[in-house]
Amino acid sequence: MRYFIAFSYLGTAYHGWQRQPNAITVQEVMEDALSTLLRGIIPLVGAGRTDTGVHAKQMVAHFDFGGKMQQAELVHRLNAYLPEDISIHGIRKVHADAHARFDAVQRTYEYWIVQKKDPFFKDSAHRVLPSLSISAMNKAAKILQEYNDFESFSKAHSDVKTFICKIQKAQWEQQQDKLVFTIIADRFLRNMVRAVVGTLLEVGLGKKEPHEIRQVIESKDRGKAGVSVPAKGLYLTEVIYPDSIFI
User: Fold this and answer.
1) Which residues of 2-15 are buried (b: 16+ CB within 10 A; e: fewer)?
2) Which pLDDT belongs to residue 155?
3) pLDDT of residue 195
4) Does 32 participate in catalysis according to the annotation?
């Protein structure tokens, strides 16, 4: 039987989601917990990868298990077993061919910025002290929705077959003491959101005009885009699947 598991994590202590040698990752910690509680080797397949220091308010993975299991009880046991910076939200049965990565139809990311020194955002937001033009950044962000090839914002030498992404929303909004950039798309390239944010910040700081975002996108040259902002301000907030995959 295949199951989807939904969870969140604070990425500060981890070298991203995906298991790797000589570095602690969220996948490793969760696989070890599942394997211990279910008394067998339980590999997880995630909805995607997040880099070192990136957070997730909602991440999804799938795993296979042939034994008897009470989903609610396993959620409770996992939350008791796992460290405080990882939380399990739920486990659902899915069809045998359901895939946490390939069946996702929409993903949402947020990027958080603060504009004053705040110890409570030390590991959870990027601090930008100069004033920013939110209206200019939103003009530039809106242009993103006119394009679908985002090679300019992809990590160099990424092993991907296509740079095509369909962006449904890209918007900045002041939320109390932080500035939040929300971007929704069917898929994202490696390092894409952090590169987009870095480019939009150049607009907000007056280093680029909003319309210059077109030149950046059309160049298909990572060197034309802005620097990638720090990982600590990035959050995966939602992954959506079609109802048909669930049992």
Assistant:
1) bbbbbbbbbbeebb
2) 84
3) 97
4) no
194 shares its domain with 172? yes
The whole-model pTM stands at: 0.95
pLDDT of residue 157: 65
Question: In this structure, is residue 247 part of a structural domain?
Answer: no
Same domain, 232 and 115: yes
pLDDT tens per residue, range 26-71: 999 999 999 999 999 999 999 998 999 999 999 999 999 999 999 9
Q: Which of residues 67, 87, 102 is at a domain's end?
A: 102
> Which residues are CB-contacts of 166 (< 8 A; sequence separation ≥ 6)?
148, 185, 186, 187
Range of the domain at 64: 2-102
Q: Count of domains in the chain?
A: 2
Give the end of a domain, one of 84, 102, 120.
102
Residue tagged active-site, from 32, 51, 118, 186: 51
